[in-house]
């Protein structure tokens, strides 16, 4: 058998401390990736909510175009249809003062991202032609 000198045995292989440090660095990196993934999912959900609200506002605008004589005829049906789509959803259509034919469609909803509840508001301005 070949005897190892003290100098050669000190540099041979990994020590337990080196392995533990490598695992610590790896675990911190994986936790960082998990955090990034969580934030990406939260922002994706927020984007979905904003897209949904935009589609709802455009739906009301199209309903108003189909009833030019009485633009707010389908307001209650639109509210019933969309009320359950988002938490604390509220849709309001108002006439813009001093602007005949201009309407403001405002939708608000509650978002529960990041352990905080925050009320968001989306407004869509619409101009309808006057019927004489």
Short key terms for the protein model shown above:
alpha+beta, three-stranded antiparallel β-sheet, 132 residues, 48% helix, 3 strands
Fraction in beta strands: 15-25%
Radius of gyration: 30 Å
Q: Helix tally?
A: 3
Low-pLDDT parts are none
What do the pLDDT scores average to? Answer: 88
Q: So what's the overall shape? A: rod-shaped
H/E topology pattern: HHHEEE
The assigned structural class equals alpha+beta
Overall tally of structural domains: 1
Describe this structure in words.
- The structure is a single chain.
- With 132 residues, this protein is an alpha+beta fold.
- It has one domain.
- Helices cover 48% and strands 20% of the residues.
- The chain contains 3 helices and 3 strands; from the N terminus they run αααβββ.
- It has helices at residues 6-10, 16-66, 75-82, and strands at 90-95, 102-111, 118-127.
- The protein has a 3-stranded antiparallel beta sheet with strand order 1-2-3, with helices on one face.
- The chain is rod-shaped.
- 11% of the residues are buried.
- The mean pLDDT is 88.
Give a brief description.
The chain is 48% helix and 20% strand.
Helices and strands, with pairings:
Layout: H1 6-10, H2 16-66, H3 75-82, E1 90-95, E2 102-111, E3 118-127
Antiparallel strand pairs: 1-2, 2-3
